[in-house]
Design brief:
The structure holds 2 protein chains of 2 kinds. Chain A has strands at 3-6, 11-14, 19-21, 23-26, 31-38, 44-50, 56-59, 62-65, 75-77, 86-94, 99-102, 106-111. Chain A is mostly beta strands. Chain B is mainly β. The chains are: A mainly beta, B mainly beta. At the A-B interface, β5, β6, β10 and β11 of A face β5, β9 and β10 of B.
Amino acid sequence: GDSVTQMEGPVTLSEEAFLTINCTYTATGYPSLFWYVQYPGEGLQLLLKATKADDKGSNKGFEATYRKETTSFHLEKGSVQVSDSAVYFCALSLYNFNKFYFGSGTKLNVKP
Amino acid sequence: EAGVVQSPRYKIIEKKQPVAFWCNPISGHNTLYWYLQNLGQGPELLIRYENEEAVDDSQLPKDRFSAERLKGVDSTLKIQPAELGDSAVYLCASSLGTYSSYNEQFFGPGTRLTVL
C-alpha cells in the first residue's frame, strides 16, 4: 500500500550543523511529496513540497528533491538554528484522491 | 486570514464518558479532515469531508466515533463512549477542495484528549 518511511529520531545537532532527515515512499501512481513541521503545542505547517520527479522544494533554508529513481524525498538544511527544533513529517498525496499519508515524524533538537 | 480553529485545546475525561471536538476551517475551504495523532506518530486520517459529504470515512471506528458537517462549514467529531486508548491529539485540517494532489492542507492546533 501507499506509505512513507522516515528516519527515527530524535536527531540532535549543534547550531550551524548540516541537517539531513531521510524519507522514502511507496506509492501507486505519481504522488506529490511534502514536508510538514510541527512546533511544540502547534499544528502542522507546510514547510515545502514537490509535485513531480526532479522538482526541488525549498523554504526557510530547507530543501528536498523528489527522486523517483530512489523513491526518496530527503530534507536538508545547510546550517540549522535553535529555532528549527521541532518535529518534521514527510508526507505524500496521490493525485485525484486528496488523501495524505504521513510518516511517523522525526524530532530535531538543535543545541546552542 | 484566520487559520483553522479547534476547541477545546485540552480535554480530560473519565472512560466511558462522551466527548466532542469542534473545528472551524478556513473560510472558503470545502475539504475538511479529521486526523488522529498518537504520541510519537504521524497523523492518521479518520474522516474527510467534501462540503457536507463524508467521502472517506473508512478509518473511522464507527462503533464509537461519529462526525458531522451539517452546513459544509464547521464540523464536530464525537466519541461515545471514550476508551483509554482514545487518548491522543485530534487534528482538524482544511484545504480548498479541488481534486488535486497539489492541495495544501492547513492544520489547526489540535485537541489533546486524555481519558482516565
